[in-house]
Amino acid sequence: MRIIFRFGGIAMLVAAIVILAVLPFATSFVEQWSRRDVELRSRLVFNSVRDQVSGLLAQNDAQRVTGLFERIASDERVLAIGYCDGQNLRFPSANMPKTFSCEEAARSDAESFSTVRNQDHNILVSSFPLNAGGRAGHLVVLHDLSYADQRGGEARNYLFLALAGVAFGAAALAAMIAALIMRRWLASIRQALDSARAGSANPPAEENIIPLGQEIRDVLQELEASRRTIDAAHTDWSPDTLRAALANELSGSEVIVVSNREPYIHNRTDGGDISLQIPASGLVSALEPVVRACGGTWVAHGSGTADRDTVDANDRVPVPPSNPSYTLRRVWLSEEEQDGYYYGAANEGLWPLCHIAFVRPIFREPDWQLYRSVNEKFADAIVAEAKREDPIILVQDYHFALLPRMIRDRLPRATIVTFWHIPWPNAETFGICPWREEIIDGLLGSSILGFHTQAHCNNFMDAVDSYVESRIDREKDSVTFGGEETLIRPYPISIEWPPTAMEGQKPVEECRRIVRERLGLPQDMRIGVGIERFDYTKGILDRMQAIDALIGEHPEWRGNFTFVQVAAPTRSKLANYRLLQEEAEALAREINEKHGGDGYEPIRLLIRHHEPDEVFELFRAADLCIVSSLHDGMNLVAKEFVAARDDEQGVLILSAFAGASRELSEALIVNPYNAHAMGEAINRSLTMPEPEQRERMRLMRDQVKERNVYRWAGQMLLAASRLRKQQRIRRLIAKGRRPAPADA
Q1: 626-649: pLDDT as tens digits
Q2: DSSP code for 343
Q3: Which InterPro entries match (predicted)?
Q4: Residue 49 half-sphere exposure toward CB, CA atoms < 13 A
């Protein structure tokens, strides 16, 4: 008991000192928080009435402006509101203090906040620049800070009580733990002395315990080193950073990547020669440094017309051809397997199911049988390539939903990281899939299962909860199924930084001149771009309808704005994709006939594949880019547009239903199903001041630079490394608990 009081007294004294030291900082934090809250309210007031006030001022409608200001000032949190036209205060609300002066409030070309004293309380004066009819002025909003001061005082009191409660509770707990540890330590010493006195020929298995404890400490040190590696590389991910992290974390590990698309394709030319094609793929850009650094294996479908001619007897080819550093293992599929597995189950079934784009999924049992058999074929290839019993296997995308479980059954000690590159729908939608339990079971063979966003992770766990018996840990974001735990994690994919396509790009003004000349456009024509595959999930028809709405409601853009839609044909075997292209061509003709004339076409539809350097040239020439996905896992076009704009100009119009909208919040976020709202967003983009464009683009570029594709790959692999070390600790602890074998 004396030990408890002694440690408790010391801990309480330390807690009191900590509280006294922290409280001034907490008080300052509360005051700053209260003021920021009031500033936020001012911004909300301004943003909600900016367009309306600007329009009324341009019309010089004093009566409606005064009425609007009085309604705003009736809010109990708003003291007064008015408009500063230079040094003149116009339309002040009734409660405007007589001492208020526009000279002090509206001195800046940007928003500003200042505090003034009025009688016995403080007033926050918020000033926002507002252009009305071409004349610059400021909207001023005044807030009485007395309620904020009162709330700040209450928050400080509650904070003090909370800190005191937590600190004293922690002190009591620390005292009890210290006493318990001391008692156990004394008991172990007494036990050792008793054993020594008894002269036992077989002392407690100390020889086994000490080495085991040392091994656990070694693994814990590796875990700490892993954490430092992740922290050190957090803001500067590059191929070199990725290679260095892998050398530290996965030295000696075997890495196998599996994907449907291969990183190198050999095709036979018309002249009979063999040409090498490197597909433009963010996935290849991200994972190639991983496989190269580890000297691993990439397993993929051999789709090139000369692929069989370039492999050895075991269907392997060393790549890259110029400097081989890893092995590409090709898997061969018949045309029937390709039709059923890829076009059928994957792209007519899972693709529309997960994208919820109002295209009915088609579920055919023969397709599913082929999907299962192709997954089995890939599992056999992976096992044949594995040189160790515990490789790290990276499974990519919805083509291989069953593969993780098949690998787990064959290689139970493998670390399997699966990434699902498309959205995961809500549980009710996923429930229509006739193979839902088998898909969930297959994916839960993974050690780590990654999605683009936390929302997709949540949807997956909801589906697991609805359709299979499992234990879900929402705090840890994990699912335990069949006695094995799968971690569910968001890993938002991105692009390489800097993009390879930026190499050799001309200055922005030169790109604009070249693109306008190529398309036969006047040099003062404003340009918008959209660059997609012909896929019904991308909202191509919706953005065309937005152009129709823009010109119909803002006819000043007729003849002054052209939208260039680049669309590459894809999956032409499927009827929905063919029909989409036909419908897009018909809609473009209709809108051009409606709003065009004298050589002017508001929509230029370019139906062909564009190389990355051509795409980036278009991005640099454009005033705006529209990404109007109806549903998308991420959509890297949005990030590529941002990366292309090193001049920090241009506006990104981004669908709220694309995963990229969770990261690029400075874009103009739109509902692609609302053509009118998208048209207004285009108009706002075309009239947005350059300083605002620069500020938005700078923030988005910083985001894409920091969270690039190498970070995406690195975070998954370092998570796999940490998981492997944690599993080693668990195995060591389990080994230490097993009874020692009896003496012979």
Answers
A1: 999 999 989 999 999 999 999 999
A2: I
A3: Glyco_trans_20
A4: 27
